[in-house]
Amino acid sequence: MIALAIFSIPLLLSLLLFNSRSNSNKLALTGLMTTLVVAIVGKVLQSYGHIISLDVPLIDTIGFHFSLILDGPAFVMVLLTLIAGIGILYSIDKEIQNANRFYAWSMMMIAAMLGAFMAADALMFYLCYEWALIPIFFLILKWGHGEHLSKITMRFFLYTLFGSLFMMLSLLYVHQSMAHPTFEMNAMWEAGKALTAGQQGWVFAGLFIAFAVKMPVFPFHSWQPSTYDHAPIQGTMLLAAIMLKMATFGLVRWALPMVPAGIEEHGQWAIYLSVISVIYASLMALTQKRLKLMIAYSSVAHVGMISAGVLSNTDQGTVGGLFEMFSHGILAVAMFAVYQMIESRVGHDRMNEMGGIRTSAPSFAFLFFILVMGSVALPFTSGFVGEFLLLQSLSNTGLGLAALAGLSVILGAAYMLRGFQKMMLGGKAIAFSALSSKETMILSIAVIIVIALGIYPNILIQLIQNIL
Amino acid sequence: MEILHNIYIQHYLALSIALFCIGIFGLLFRKNAIIMFMCVELMLNAVNIALVAFSKMHGDTDGQIFVFFIMVVAAAEVAVGLAILMMLYRNMHSTDTDSLNQLKG
Amino acid sequence: MEKLVALIPLFPALGFLCITFLGKNMSKTAVGTLATAMVGISFVLASLVFSTQLHEGHATMVKVFDWIHVGTFKVDISFIVDPLSSLYILFITGVGSLIHLYSIGYMHEDEGFNRFMSYLNLFVFFMLLLVLGDNLLLLFVGWEGVGVCSFMLIGFWYKDHANNDAAKKAFVINRIGDLGLLLAMTLIFIQCGSLNYNDLMISGGDIASLGKWTTLAAILLFIGAMGKSAQFPLHTWLPDAMAGPTPVSALIHAATMVTAGIYLVARFSDLFAMSEMASQVVTWAGVITAVMGASIALTQNDIKKVLAYSTVSQLGFMFAALGMGAYSIAVFHVVTHAFFKALLFLGSGSVIHAMGGEQDIRRMGGLKNHMSITYWTFLIGTIAIAGIFPFAGFFSKDQILAHAMENNLTVFVLLMLAAAGTAFYMFRMFYLTFHGKFRGTHEQEHHLHESPATMTTPLIVLAIASTIGGFIGFPHAIGESLHVHHWLDHFLSGTVVAAHSHLDATAEIILALVAMGVAGGMIYFAYNTYVSRGINALEDEEINSGLHKLLLKKYGFDELYDNIIRKPIDYIASGLHHWVEDKALMNIVDGSGSSVKGIARLLQGLQNGQIITYLLAMIGGLIALLFLI
Amino acid sequence: MIILLISALLGVALLALEIFKLRSWMMPLMLISFMAILAGTAIQWGLAENIMNQNMISMDAFALKGISILTILAAFWLVTQHKNIQATGNSSDLYALIAFSFCGALLMTNFTNLVMLFLAIEILSIPLYVLAASKRGDQLSNESGFKYFLLGSVASSILLFGIALIYGATASFDLYTIHHFMATQNTHPWIMVGLVMMLVGFAFKISAAPFHFWAPDVYQGAPTPITGWMATVVKGAAIIGMFRLFAGAFEGAMSTFAGIIAIMVTLTLIIANGMATLQHNVKRMLAFSGISHAGFLLSTLLIPGFASQALMFYILGYGIASLIAFTIMQNVGSQIGEELHAFEGLAKKSPFSAAMMTIALLSMAGIPPLAGFFGKYYIISGLMGHYTWLTIIMVLTSVVGMYYYLKVIFVMYGKSENGASYTENGKLYPILGAIALLTLFAFSAFI
Q1: Domain ranges (residues) in chain B
Q2: In this complex, which of B27, B100, B101 lies closest to C615 when CB atoms are compared?
Q3: For residue C577, which of A297, A405, A413, A407 has the smallest C-alpha distance?
Q4: How many structural domains is chain C composed of?
Q5: Rounded to whole angstroms, how far apart are CA atoms D233 and A255?
Q6: In chain B, what residues touch D140 (CB-CB under 8 Å)?
Q7: What is the ipTM of this complex?
Q8: Where are the alpha helices (DSSP H) in D47-90?
Q9: Domain that holds residue C606
């Protein structure tokens, strides 16, 4: 029942917000916080043996259940969604027109993603996966900027839709292979395992195309930079911090348990693709002149790492993958928040034209530096734990692959530090007003999470493994 | 009288197919709406011939009853068609179907 | 007693936090004292731990808390106390506290004083983590942590992009090494199923299960060491790192951080002992680095650059020793080197302080009359590094040479050359700086003064240390009578593979005499050139011999790497960006859309509004279907 | 039987009302009779399959399902289009003709005899010829009416020839006899040819490629309410009749026809979606999208075991969605224009209309959790494993479909503006919205 509450509170809120007029910000934030509390309480109850999951048969003819669970991975992703969501909605600094609509769409998107993370039914997962597209589509279309906006939104929408339809085909293929077709999670896993390796390979191909587009992985990423660039910054945060996690989470929750043999025997190309994507994205980030795009490409590199490590199918891979999803989610929000702060003060984000911000705003520089270190996976930051576990898992597939993916350790340091140096350091000190308490709050909390998880990651790891 | 005994169902069928094709060719090659109606009628009547022949062959009357239905329907169709054609003529002052190409693409 | 070890890294960390968050409303003196005190306390604790180790020299683990537990992968925050680590923490905290003290005086004028002190504390924290961690991953934490601190301290004066570039270069090149270390870790875990020294070497010996991967693992580890310890071909960052304040050069880039590589290899001596090839690689990397560093140092005129290259070459000596299996001796040289090189750097700092920031020895001269303490301490340091009995440098270097002699004559000759070079360039710098007449500007001359006590005290202490520091590792020949020979070797034998020279006493003595003779000759040569004949080093534009130019340009490694690594990567990246990202992918995506429309345009011709066409299509379709049946 | 009587009498009654100047009663009367028909189906639902009147029609479960679905659509059409029909001035004629063609549509669901089939098709079509041309002054309307009439009559004569050949082979018009004949005797060449010709006739009615060319022109030229009627009720009736015929009586021959039908489906999907991307006239674009849905409808014949509920579900989902779309289309078209830019800034002028249009389009595009998605879902999952290649084509073409639906949504919600003013038509909208939402979201589950 609590699972249902977690899913429905944001949904109802969004419907409410569509019609409310006043202080939608507070409403949305309180709603999310309530949900967060509910989720945590639910987890505690669950650990005392209460049943909080939910399973309502919806369409018996095809075995479609409305079923939500809150096991380790799901709970971690729910946590991420809510924390990041709060951060994102809290980070809105200036007045936006039709604010209530904006919040309503955001809440609806959050609800959809929560559904996807908690879904214990393949069709349910697919429905939420697709449904999340609609709100972000409107967020970009209505609150985005740039002259080619509609072209870019179109590309984004069609591209991701194109991908996810292949996922539907794969799921249906597994579904119709059953004697008594149902979409229930374990049944799907069993049915998938029952297929021959060749069929599993094809099913996996379908799934991976969907996820590769969403994540994105080279060469399916060409929608991403322009979309991130022209979306409203909160939309970008939603995309980078949470939405793409649906894809990586999909790998963990659906691809791995359903078609292990297919990945093992016919799925290695996906790992190679992910590794290529890591290097390619790092090189792209190296060439960027603008902060926002640099962050965008660095996120591609991180996600490629996740997918490569997860697909290697080891304990470290799965756990490290989920860990890195969480850490990357937090870092993405913080990084784009940093972008927003710089952009709103300087008026642009061309790194070459900045410099010496550290002189004017030392504490900002300090926080930003820690975030940079987090995203180059420095030990004692959350980034390191995830990346190391993923690398560990990947090197089971091949040390050479691990070495190639590891190049991102070097390249990442190169472009991140270059960006930091260009903006923060140097002689010329451009005017830069100190952070507002709100902004400091956001960054500090992110930094605290990043470092805390870096020093004591075990708590999250145990959550993931459902030990707690 | 002799000759009639050497006429088999195939011949009737051939006749009706021939009429049917003539109707089609008429439709394809004539531009005048009236004549095109005639061709449609021709096709319907080709069907009638076939039906009558078959019903004779099977020795039951269903086919011939069906023919009456077809005739009725054909009459109705012609009525509607001519009405439409009248209106067309009022608006366009011609019955040339080549000019009917404003809707396309 | 060992339980105390958990506190040792704690204090510097506390210092860092206090200064970062409370430092704003504290006086500089307070901050300086706090920072120094924190490291001082750690030093006291470290010496306590060390003294216990003196009695029972076995390894103990002190677990703090679980860190990462995933399936079979279990790594804790847990410390190891054994001779090696206790020795390291001893001189890290010792030299560290001295340098903190020194910095109070040296950095007093700088507005970033608090920042500087906090960074130094943070560095000491990570360095202690590095040597105290009882598993590779925790070592890696320290490893990267000191890298970041070095980044922040090299680029301490961040307003000048030259410093920032140097800092970035140091960090990125270090990262290359770190990747090697990372891969070594994954490989070792996959093969041995653990990252703890205890399982791997001390009690478990799982390292043996590396099998055919042994050499690869060893080499990957060594790549990590190369990056940190500036071994050829990853040595180029260290000289540039001199952009940082002098205490940083003394602490990080001479005494402690750069010797982390030696620690790593010594820690894994069992692994390296198993792989002949890896040892060869280590040896030759060391030898090449030693000779190259020494040769470049001959021509440098920046006082800190000279010391930097001498550091590079001394590190080369250490790795040569490691490669030849003389692990304990390498560690021995690390310790002595820490003493005299810190001393030299701090001395040079004092000189720079006096010269008002001037670093070119061609603009100095005759300083001995103005700053006697600095002069004498610097002299001790110079003699020590030149390897004159009975100063610290002599013992360690002499034993490295001894090992070289019995293992491989070529190595021996090359190292001998390097040693000779060392003696020459050190004294060249020494004479140019302190002797002759002053060659700087007048206001500089007027400004000349001895440094404050906070700066001279460390000099004196370190001078004493570099004088007697060598006695912890007496060579066989001399020590036998005193029953203290190879004391360090025995002390470390529990941890690292023991291997002391088997030359008989006479041979050792002859070798020692030869070495000292060569050094002495070089010193005389230097004296003759720069003091008696009073020749000053050439200005850059006067140089015309090709070799000299080559050395001055440091064999052109920077340019080389620029051309074969950085530029190609940028070129490839921009190429990909232009052709693949912007052209190919975009055209595929948008092209697929327009191609659909193109096909549709072909079909549009049929939808021409003519009834005839539609009829034809129908009849055609009918016929086609009839044929398809 | 009562059901058919009601529908037949309805038309007459409407004409009578015109005579007695009681136009205002028409709409209630029609609604009442639709309700009565629904009630009738509900009553007969339980009863065993009963064959009446010398095997002419049969009210079996399939027929009842079809009738109820078509009636629901017709009622929804009436509610949404009533105002527009009244606006034309000659509402009685139009309503009467609609009633007649509705009667034909009902017959299409329950014939058991080729004669009845022929009559049903003609009763269904002949009023439409008139309706299509009912805008007297408008040349486009005339042209569409003429095209529809001419091509339609050719199609029905081809169909007739097919019927004749089958009669010639089997000596009967009765579907059960024919079914029995085909099950026992070896297949006669005449039957095959006849079947192909009937297939062509039906393909024309549901506008499947390559017999679809008339559809865009007629849909565009005809008055929008009529287009709505043709695109939903008529198309639904045609495909139901086709399904009844080929999946019922001729199922023996389907093995030979599957290949052909698969090809036709592929052609339809590709041509329709491709052409739709080029359209600037939204009405015409909707026409092409309707053709592409005909491709989906046709493909239900390929599902093993002929999943009739998939068909019914798709008709209903698609029908409701496109009726909504055509309603908004009509309002915008009559007030501003039918071109794409007429929709600019609709979201600001009337958020409700824009929202309804968006939901309808997204449903047609098959975005979950709307009904259109489930419609596609049932079909694709039915074909999956048997015609996997076809499902991939369906998926790819529906991405193309998404493109042109999105274009409209972009225009409505985009930043650009056209000056034209727009007022929502009628107070029924909230109700209509409620119904639409209900059907599009909720009923996805109840089938």
Answers
A1: 10-93
A2: B27
A3: A297
A4: 2
A5: 43
A6: 102-103
A7: 0.86
A8: 61-88
A9: 560-628
Name the residue in chain A with its Cα closest to that of C183: A403
Q: Give how far C616 is from chain B: nearest CA, Å.
A: 7
Residues of C whose CB is below 8 A from D165: none
How many Å apart are CA D183 and CA D263, to the nearest integer?
26
Residue C150 lies in a domain: no
The pLDDT tens digits for C161-195 are: 888 888 988 998 899 999 999 999 999 998 888 88
Q: How many CB pairs under 8 A join A and D?
A: 68
Residues of A in contact with D447 (CB under 8 A): 59, 61
- Asked if residue C480 belongs to a domain, the reply is yes
Q: Which fold has domain B10-93?
A: Helix Hairpins (1.10.287)
Tokens 């003609």 found at: D122
Do residues C402 and C503 share a domain?
Answer: yes
Structure tokens at C626: 């009839």
Using a CB-CB cut-off of 8 Å, the residues of chain A touching D398 are 165
Q: How far apart are CA C281 and CA C272, in angstroms?
A: 10
Q: Is C450 helix (H, G, I), strand (E, B) or coil?
A: coil
- C542 shares its domain with C422: yes
Chains B and A make contact, 3+ CB pairs within 8 Å: no
Q: List the alpha helices (DSSP H) in C193-302.
A: 197, 214-229, 237-240, 246-250, 260-267, 269-274, 276-297
Average pLDDT over residues C481-491: 59
Task: Specify if C133 maps to a domain.
Answer: no
Task: Looking at the structure, tell me whether residues C435 and C353 fall in a common domain.
Answer: yes
Average pLDDT over residues C489-508: 69
In a domain, C454, yes or no: yes
Pair C367, C480 in one domain: yes
CA D183, D187, D189 angle in degrees (round to 5)?
155
Q: Residue D67: left if φ>0, alpha if ψ -120 to 50, beta else—which one?
A: alpha
Instruction: Return the amino acid letter for D15.
Output: L
Please indicate whether chains C and A are in contact, defined as at least 3 beta carbon pairs under 8 Å: yes
Chain C contact residues (CB < 8 Å to B): 604, 607-612, 615-616, 619
CA-angle at C15, arms to C12 and C20, nearest 5°: 130
Residues 6 or more apart whose Cβ sits within 8 Å of residue D188 = D169, D170
Q: Hey, how many other C-beta atoms are within 10 angstroms of the C-beta on D424?
A: 15
CA pair distance C83, D218, nearest whole angstrom: 95
pLDDT score of D44 more than 60: yes
DSSP bridge partners of A388: none
Give me C98's structure tokens. Answer: 């001295």
Q: Is the CB of residue D437 less than 8 Å from the CB of residue D359?
A: yes
Note down pLDDT in tens along chain A; length 468 residues. 788 888 989 999 888 888 877 778 888 888 999 999 999 998 888 888 787 888 888 877 788 888 998 888 999 999 999 999 999 988 887 778 888 888 999 999 999 999 999 999 999 999 899 889 989 998 998 888 888 888 888 889 999 998 889 999 999 999 888 888 889 899 999 999 999 998 999 999 999 999 999 988 988 888 888 899 999 999 999 999 999 999 999 999 999 999 999 998 888 999 999 999 999 999 999 888 899 999 999 999 999 999 999 999 888 899 999 999 999 999 999 999 999 999 888 888 888 888 888 888 888 989 999 999 999 988 899 999 999 999 999 998 888 899 999 988 889 998 999 999 888 888 787 888 888 888 899 999 999 999 999 999 988 998 888 764
Residues C546 and C564 placed together within one structural domain of the fold:
no
Is C469 found in the same domain as C595? no
Q: Which residues contact C392 (CB under 8 A, 6 or more apart)?
A: C336, C339, C340, C384, C465, C466, C467, C468, C469, C470
Write the CA distances from B62 to A234, B65, D104, D107, integer angstroms. Answer: 74, 5, 22, 20
